[in-house]
C-alpha cells in the first residue's frame, strides 16, 4: 500500500470511531428483544415512503440539471453523475462522492471542475436554507427559550442571506472582492473567497427567475423528504407528534456535518432519535425508527446510484478501474 493510500486510510479512523460512539450512545439502553420486536404496523404507508422518495430524488436530479444547463449536459447524464456521487458518499470515506462529481465526471458533463463546484455550492446553500426553516418551524414544545431564539436568529440570517444572494448577485461581486482584499492573506480566506465568487457566478448565470425556480424546487424536495420520514413513522407505528418527523429531517441532515463513517452512520440515528423524542416519541422506539429509516435510505440510494454507475461503465468498457480513478482524486476541494 502506498504512503498516500495509508495516509488516506488513517484519516478515516476518527470518523469510524465517532460513528461507533454515536451508535453506542443511541442504542445503549435497547435490548436484543426490542430490536426483534420491530414490525411493520401500517404497510399502506410503504407507498408514501417509496413514492415521495422517487419524487424527492428525481427532482434533485432535475434541479442540478437546471444548474448545469449552460454546459449542455443531458438530464440523463446529470442524473447518473448526481446519483453516483450520492452512492459513493454512502460507501466511501471523506465525501469522495462530491469530489468525484467535481473532478472525475467533469469531462462527462462537458465542463470544468470549477463550474461544477459552483453549482454544488448553490445546491448546498438552498438546502441549508430550507433545512433551517424546517428546524425553526418544527421545534419541539420543550425547546428552551435560548434554543428558540437561536433558531429564529438563524432563520432570519438565512432568509436575508439567501435573498441578497439570489436578488443581488450581479452587484455583490465587486464589494465582496474589496472585502476579501482587506482580510489577511491566509489559505482558508483565499479558499472561502474562491468558493463565494464561484457561487455568485453560478447565480448570475442562472438569473433571478431561474434561482427562484431552484428555491421552489428545493422546498418541494425537502417537503417530500419530510413526507418520507412521516411515512416511515406511520409504517412502524411510532407514537409522536405529527411534526416530529419533520424536525427529524432537519436534525438528521445537519448531523452529516459531524465527521463520521460513510453515510453518516451514527450521527443520523442519534439526531433522528433526539428529534422524535423531543416530540413525544419513546426513546427506544425512536432509535429503532431511526435505524430502520437510515438502512432503507442507504440501500435505496446506494442501490439506484450504484446501478446507474455500473450500467454506464458496462457501456463504456474503456474507462479505467474505479479504484484508479479514486487514487488520482485530489485530497480536498478546489
TrEMBL record:
Membrane disposition: Multi-pass membrane protein
Any Pfam family from its record, for instance, is: LPG_synthase_TM
Q: Where in the cell is it found?
A: Cell membrane
Q: What is its main location?
A: membrane
Q: Does the keyword DNA-binding apply?
A: no
Membrane spanning residue stretches: 9-27, 39-59, 125-143, 149-169, 195-222, 286-311
Q: Which GO terms describe its cellular component?
A: plasma membrane
UniProt KW keywords: Cell membrane, Membrane, Transmembrane, Transmembrane helix
Q: What is this protein called?
A: Uncharacterized protein
Amino acid at each position: 500500500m502506498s504512503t498516500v493510500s495509508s495516509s488516506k486510510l488513517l484519516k478515516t479512523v476518527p470518523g469510524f470511531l465517532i460513528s461507533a460512539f454515536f451508535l453506542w450512545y443511541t442504542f445503549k439502553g435497547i435490548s436484543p428483544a426490542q430490536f426483534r420486536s420491530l414490525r411493520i404496523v401500517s404497510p399502506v404507508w410503504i407507498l408514501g415512503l417509496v413514492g415521495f422518495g422517487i419524487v424527492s430524488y428525481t427532482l434533485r436530479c432535475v434541479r442540478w440539471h437546471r444548474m448545469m444547463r449552460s454546459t449542455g449536459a443531458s438530464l440523463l447524464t446529470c442524473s447518473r453523475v448526481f446519483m453516483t456521487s450520492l452512492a459513493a458518499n454512502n460507501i466511501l470515506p471523506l465525501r469522495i462522492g462530491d469530489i468525484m462529481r467535481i473532478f472525475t465526471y467533469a469531462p462527462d458533463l462537458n465542463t470544468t471542475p470549477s463550474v461544477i463546484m459552483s453549482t454544488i455550492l448553490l445546491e448546498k446553500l438552498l438546502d441549508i436554507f430550507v433545512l433551517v426553516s424546517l428546524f425553526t418551524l418544527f421545534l419541539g414544545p420543550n425547546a428552551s427559550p435560548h434554543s428558540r431564539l437561536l433558531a429564529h436568529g438563524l432563520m432570519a440570517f438565512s432568509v436575508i442571506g439567501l435573498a441578497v444572494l439570489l436578488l443581488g448577485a450581479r452587484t455583490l461581486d465587486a464589494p465582496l472582492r474589496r472585502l476579501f482584499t482587506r482580510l489577511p492573506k491566509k489559505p482558508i480566506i483565499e479558499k472561502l473567497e474562491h468558493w463565494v465568487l464561484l457561487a455568485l457566478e453560478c447565480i448570475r448565470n442562472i438569473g433571478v427567475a431561474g434561482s427562484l425556480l431552484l428555491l421552489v424546487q428545493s422546498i418541494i424536495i425537502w417537503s417530500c423528504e419530510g413526507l418520507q420520514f412521516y411515512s416511515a413513522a406511520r409504517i412502524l407505528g411510532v407514537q409522536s407528534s405529527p411534526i416530529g418527523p419533520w424536525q427529524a429531517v432537519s436534525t438528521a441532515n445537519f448531523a452529516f456535518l459531524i465527521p463520521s463513517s460513510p453515510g453518516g452512520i451514527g450521527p443520523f440515528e442519534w439526531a433522528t432519535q433526539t428529534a422524535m423524542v423531543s416530540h413525544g416519541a419513546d426513546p427506544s422506539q425512536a432509535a429503532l425508527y431511526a435505524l430502520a429509516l437510515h438502512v432503507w435510505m442507504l440501500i435505496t440510494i446506494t442501490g439506484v446510484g450504484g446501478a446507474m454507475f455500473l450500467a454506464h461503465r458496462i457501456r463504456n468498457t474503456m474507462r479505467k478501474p474505479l479504484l484508479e480513478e479514486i487514487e488520482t482524486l485530489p485530497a480536498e476541494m478546489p
